[in-house]
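Action item from last week, closing it out:
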Amino acid sequence: MEVILREDIDRLGSRGQVVKVAPGYARNYLLPKRLAVAATDSNRKIVEQERQAHLRRDAKLQGEAQDLAKLLGTATITISRKAGENDQLFGSVTAADIADALAAQKYTVDRRKIQLEEPIRTLGEHKVPVRLHKDVVADVTVNVNREN
């Protein structure tokens, strides 16, 4: 059965693409969840209009993300934690801590967008990537200092 995808689906296709799928997969999953529509001429026109609107919206969001990335690139946040003798922290600095510190500086960034592979456990300066959009990544400088 041929369907037109309304959303990007992993290992199947991207928005607006016509794909062949098993009838049961289309009938039981794709169509009820409105992830796809049947491949008819009228549906092709509707999906193409949706795709164009999505591209315009995505371009606007990407522009806003690039502006925020320029501001975040110059941002430096300082976090104080208790540390041992070898500059090892007793706790750790997580993405939520970094998001809170950014919020204190009037930057609203969701903690899930902070791409911290593992929590920071040492003192010093660290570069932390923040994914603001699928194509826009900003590096934020995080200084971890010893708490008095």
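Closing note: DSSP finds three helices and eight strands in the chain.
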